[in-house]
Amino acid sequence: MADGDGNHLGHALYEPEGAVALRMVSRAEEFDWNDAVLLDRLRWAKEHRERYVEDSFSGACRLVHADADGFPGLAVDRYGEFLLVYKYAQAVDSYLDRLVPLLEQEFAPKGIYLQDRTRSVTAEDSSRRPPAALLAGKAAPPEFEVEEDGLKFIVDVTAPVSPGLFLDLRAGRRLLEGISKGRRVLNLFSFTGALALRAVRGGATDVTNVDAAARSHARCRQNLAASEMDPEACEALSGDVFKFLERFRQRERVFDLVVVDPPPFSTVKGTTFSALEHWNQLAEAVARVVAPGGEVLAVANAAGLTEEEFLGAVGEGCQNAGRSPRVIDECGLPPDFPVLAAFPEGKYLKVKLLSLG
Description:
single chain; alpha/beta; Transcription Regulator spoIIAA; Rossmann fold; 2 domains; globular; SAM-dependent_MTases_sf; transferase
């Protein structure tokens, strides 16, 4: 690449279609995107995880985090003895076939799967993504366990949307466990219950999960049982979050701690939620069911939602409900999700603990 005056800028992978036309791979004058470079970058990423990622969750972590590890358009997650490669750009095809044997060499997985995320889908279509494809090695069992901080979670590496455990929210789960003792916890958009398990182990007096999918509650019960906890430890409510919040308000049911971790987009029975547009409405509904002196653990993982916009929306919603929120703690991405200093937009995950006055 060169600027308009012919000055060298670097070497990049070209993407003829998609949001990003050029993905930088090196700023050097001379550069060859060969196997030696791939291996060197892979080993650098591996050494980073060995240094900063504790053994307690090494069986479920991100091994390669796209541009931050020198692999534009690609990420690699480890779930137990299997690797899951995410392809976010067609340009990845220029080096994927050469990378797979290097992944086998460095990590010795039983199998490697590919999840193609190059096609943009709507909230309604996200569940219709094809399952992950086996790239190398043996097929994974339909379900198997991985461990995080002594808790066990059942995952499916072929699942189109998520294996069942979001690795980037690890720090948020730890934060929740530390503040759950003696609290009545409401867990919204509960998915497979990873946050719920932390609340239960942290000593919550009761945990109520709300999710649109009944199958998510079933997986939560499986995860509780796998972690040697009561599979019925959580109240499970299936349906629209906003409708349940209104029901709680009408019945004057309140909670000491509300966990709010919505997907960037979701559709339930024709009603669409967008984090970019509806966080203020969600925050207002949540604030109305928080007990006096209670707290909200708010999570935003929408890359297009800045921290200022997120806090502004949450603040506006809480104030509309007559509550005054204060940020008393926060966390973000764990060390296996590094962020390039020159690309702060890569810090997409925001986790805020708010005290409501």
